[in-house]
Amino acid sequence: MTIAVNARFLLADYLEGYGNFMYETLKFIVRKHPEHRFIFIFDRAFDTRFVFAENIIPVVATPPARHPLLWKYWYQYKIPRILNKFKADVFLSADGFCSLKTQVPQCIVVHDLAFLHYPDFHKKSHLAFFRKYIPRFLNKAKSIATVSQFSKNDIINQYQIDEAKIDVVYSASKEIFLPSTDEEKNATKNKYTEGREYFLYTGAIHPRKNLMHLLKAFSIFKKRLQSNMKLVIAGRLAWQYRSFIDSLKTYKYRNDVVLTSYLEDNELVKITGAAYAMVYPSLFEGFGVPPIEAMQCHTPVITSQSSAMQEITKEAALYANATDPVDIAEKMMMLYKDENLRNVLIEKGKTVSATYNWEITADLVWRSVIKALG
Predict the structure, then answer these.
(1) Any idea which architecture 2-172+357-372 has in CATH?
(2) I need a labelling partner for 215 at 20 to 30 A (CA). Which of 139, 188, 223, 241 fits?
(3) Region for residue 172 given its phi and psi (left: phi exceeds 0; alpha: psi -120 to 50; beta: otherwise)
(4) How far apart are CA 227 and CA 219, in angstroms?
(5) 159-191: string of b/e by CB count within 10 Å (b at 16+)?
(6) 98/75 Cα distance (integer angstroms)
């Protein structure tokens, strides 16, 4: 069997979101099925580390598909040609897009429908494309994989897709996220926060991640407790980051906020393992990997009570109203004052994080690919 794979998010300079999901799942799928041929379709020159097995054939289909006009060209014209050339039996695409101009069965992975719930957080050109084409992609695909029951329900409710067509595959965290030793924690704190304890947020700096309310919550925490605690924000600057950066210039506690920018995985593990707690107040998530990363590192989690977060982190986190900075601050203060609560969350986090595994996810994605074949 020949499985064509959308590999355009397997990027050497950074591997986030869709790219990380594909890389981790495909490592298992490809190696477990050496009898099949996998065509990895890139939209630019690729890193050879993404061709990690002999049964992978890399193909470059330029130009890079990075805005709506090129999305349309890439998926509707370039992809069908490659599928025909290699006589693909099925096409797997993990960014929620597929081709409307091929009869090859397709399995798509849809992580969330955030554009419907928070349209202001997307470029107008992207939003117009999503609104027009996402329902068509969902109907065209023979099977749909998604990363939570929340997202499955959302797809059904928004587009009346047959629930039997949708498989929940969940996501996971990399195995390298492990607890730090006391010595490693001290070294990390000395490097980033002058040796002080800190709350941590990891992820893109983007309006959907709700970092303005995190700053407000941190102000309330600092004012009420007079603590020397710091706030570390580790992530790349994404779309609409400027207002957040500008607000930091006049922020009262700006000297206690540390921006690390994008971190490689090894450094991200260290900064996660040394944190006093992770605060992840995202407004909308289909899954939310950073809290699972924190739990694997034995770092307690405060997150939002909306979207998929309660489904994913279960009883192992404190939940706050993401639209209420006071509530977020109260959860931060509760954790700061109660060491026993912190230890309870750490223990529960160990159990919950252990239920997510890339090999399990890969097996579920593979089943969804087979379903697309009928």
Answers:
(1) 3-Layer(aba) Sandwich (3.40)
(2) 188
(3) beta
(4) 11
(5) eebeeebbbbbbbbbbeebebbeeeebeebbee
(6) 6
User: What would be the CATH architecture of the domain defined by 182-353?
Assistant: 3-Layer(aba) Sandwich (3.40)
- In the block, tokens 């029951």 appear at 149
Average pLDDT per 10 consecutive residues for the chain, totaling 374 residues: 97 84 97 97 96 97 94 97 98 97 98 95 93 98 98 98 98 96 98 97 86 95 96 82 81 94 92 98 95 98 95 98 97 97 98 97 98 95
Q: Quote the CA–CA distance of 293 and 269 in Å, as a whole number.
A: 8
The total of other beta-carbon atoms located within 10 Å of residue 123's CB is: 12
Q: How is the chain split into domains, by residue range?
A: 2-172+357-372, 182-353
180 secondary structure, DSSP code = P
DSSP conformation class of 240 = T
Counting every residue written for the chain, the total comes to 374
